[in-house]
Predict the 3D structure of the following.
Amino acid sequence: MSLLLIFEQLLNGLQFGVMLFLIAAGLTLVLGIMNLVNLAHGSLYMVGAFVCAWVSLQSGSFLLGLVAALPATALVGILVELLVLRRLYDRDHLDQVLATFGLILFFNEGVKIVFGARPLRLDLPDWLSGAVEILPGAPYPAFRLAIIAVGLLVGLFLYWLVTRTRLGMLIRAGASNREMVQALGVDIAKLYTLVFGLGAVLAALGGVMAGPIYAVEVGMGEPMLIMVFVVIVIGGIGSIRGAFVGALLVGLTFMLCRAFLPGLFGLFLDPAGAAAVGGALASMAIYILMAGVLIARPRGLFPAQG
Amino acid sequence: MQRSDLAALIGLLAFALFPALAWAGGLLWAVDLASRMLIYGLAALALNLILGYGGLVSFGHAAFVGAGAYVVGILSFHSFMGGGFLGLPGSGSGFLVFPLAMLVSGLLALAIGALSLKTSGLYFIMITLAFAQMIYYLFISLPDYGGEDGLSLWARSDFGPLDIGNDVVFFYLCLGLVLAFTLLKRRLVGARFGWTLMGLRDNPRRMQALGTAGFRYQLAAFTLSGAVAGLAGALLANQTEFVSPSFLSWHLSGELLVIVILGGIGTLYGPLAGAVAFLLLEFLLREVTEHWQLFLGPILILVVLYARRGLWGLVEGRRRD
């Protein structure tokens, strides 16, 4: 019984981890290649979730929502890149933090005006809302399994894209020496816009996946964004591989601590105290993990070269 | 530099006369807003010591503000409800809780700084954020002190003959503390300490070659900055008569960064101008529309793009670049 419970929590951690990875992948590319701290990445995640929820509500089809959300968010992302972020690439991190903080305020309020202040509900179609019996006696929600599958596929796709294609080669080259790539005749501005659009699509995908599990509400991006930054910093800025490993580490740490720490403290504290201390430590665990990693390896687990 | 000092004197005069002017104009409620500006200004001045002069981007200064506020909140809670915190009896005396708030925040900054200063650049931004988030979740999980809902103060701190329950008296307390720290900072920045900090900001390798123990200077600045942020927190708790985890949230850390940059990073008085402008803007936009953030956001972006040295840059006029 308790083995099954551990197994289920491992799957939960994996599912949360791959969702973090979807958002982290785009952010780490933007950070590593363009050297841009984009706090508004969480807003793209929110926009994706809202568009999907709204279209699903209107049309009654989750798939239609998904299909609408990805290009819509890509469009928003590209617009933001062209209008604002493009001017920030050669500024220092501080200016970028401030300007993208402004973008967060703008997006949160804008979404509130367009979609209303109340959270939207995102319902799953029947074929995704059931449970699958992965081990005898251990049913697990089909949708969460689907998230894990999609996340792993995206991971493989990005690995292929970055290491095996010409675009990926340019991305890597742009990360290590921007001027040289430009001197060789590559339109670096177009490349940046493209990479940013790709990151926006991945964030939207993360938002669509998160919608049915968590609430689709204004401000949903920020808690996620902070976790994603933790992921990226643990993995090493600019490294897709690092983002993947970091995301799984953070996802598993968070879910396992949340499930088991209160019980652990229950062994030597009274139940109320154990719940409080355990819950707090579970929330703190990922930050403790990050601080530990940074103190041991100040540039993350997989520092990108260059 | 003379021009900047003159402007600062005019600003000080305006603040000193403000309660009288507000009273004459029938706007006595605005004194509370002005106190809030001073408190945010004090926190921003503290942040600017490491951000502007040290080049250390702390994205976790809310932790020190919040810790200071909670020291006031928790001790006030115990002085009315009995009991104690870790063996400490409660107290409502400002002469005790204010220094204690500075001490606690300073020690916290010493610990966080000692660990965080091993990293640099973006990693420093993120690790300070991570530590602040830890403190945030720690206080959320303390049901005795209100958890997520926070804690109401029974009364403002007791300063003996000085009744800070009165908004005007409280305002002058804030003004006095801001003035004291500004003078201290002015002296520090002009002294060897400040020049060392700036040297470490601009060329750490060279400073190392000169034999400077950079880590100690940066840690000292970080600790002082944290302690003063804690003092601002103690004032904030008194101003709102309420303490909540939102004082520890990363939104406040972000706002403080915004205020410093808006006012003019690495300037002596800029952060104060930034606090006045930011809170005034927020207040006015709130009056006009409930969707004030829709306008505040783009304004911040425009400031970043077009006013690169902040508001104080306009005051100082053209300077070496």
About this structure: Chain A has twelve helices and two strands. The longest strand of chain A covers residues 131-135. Chain A touches chain B through 47 residues (CB under 8 Å). Chain A has a mean pLDDT of 86.
